[in-house]
């Protein structure tokens, strides 16, 4: 009876429709303890700390491959995932985030990039809400960010909106022992222990 009640409690959140985009947290895997503002960043609309506009996840399932025999589709294989990506529209991306994540060099405050520039691995956590107001989290264990373009535009008579920075995340499988082979995970609902566990798996537990 207790197990049945526990399962019922865990299944109270059923709808998967998402409303809004509250935040995106990005942790740069640079071998150091996660520290806010250095290698751990949450873009949630705070002044000078960036904000999120859009996030689109693709590649969550592989394309089915049919094997034909005896004039019929004898077998369908669709194991695993596709090319998992997250396309994000961000505002006012912190300088420390993209110079660290993209692997820029630092020459006494002059950040440079060139032939030897290599992006670092990162993990990301997207926070939204369901239609009934419950929080929804989508985490991705490992991958790299890319930011292909920066747009410049002249000042006009009317004030301009801040330009959106398009940042793409290309996911790869986790190689950590506890999450080996996983690309991502989902937590629906307000269970603090589940969220804490997910953040730990994403290496997002900040230094005290």
Topology:
Elements lengths: L1 H9 L7 E11 L11 E4 L7 E8 L6 E5 L2 E6 L7 E7 L3 H7 L3 E3 L2 E3 L8 E10 L4 E12 L18 E7 L12 E5 L3 H10 L7
Antiparallel strand pairs: 1-2, 1-9, 3-6, 4-5, 6-11, 7-8, 9-10, 10-11, 10-12
Overview of the molecule:
- By secondary structure, the chain is mainly beta.
- 12% of the residues lie in helices and 39% in strands.
- The protein has three helices and twelve strands.
- The strands form three sheets. Strands 1, 2, 3, 6, 9, 10, 11 and 12 form an eight-stranded antiparallel β-sheet that branches. The chain has a two-stranded antiparallel sheet with strand order 4-5.
- A hairpin with a 4-residue loop joins β9 and β10.
- The radius of gyration is 20 Å and the shape is globular.
- The mean pLDDT is 89.
Sketch the major β-sheet. Answer: 8 strands, antiparallel
Number of strands: 12
Could you list the spans in which at least 5 consecutive residues all have pLDDT below 50? Answer: none
Write the H/E string, N to C: HEEEEEEHEEEEEEH
Question: How does the helix and strand content classify structurally?
Answer: mainly beta
Rounded mean pLDDT score = 89
Instruction: Describe the global form.
Output: globular
Work out the radius of gyration: 20 Å
Report the sheet-strand fraction.
35-45%
Distance between the termini: 40 Å
Number of helices: 3
Helix residue percentage: 10-25%
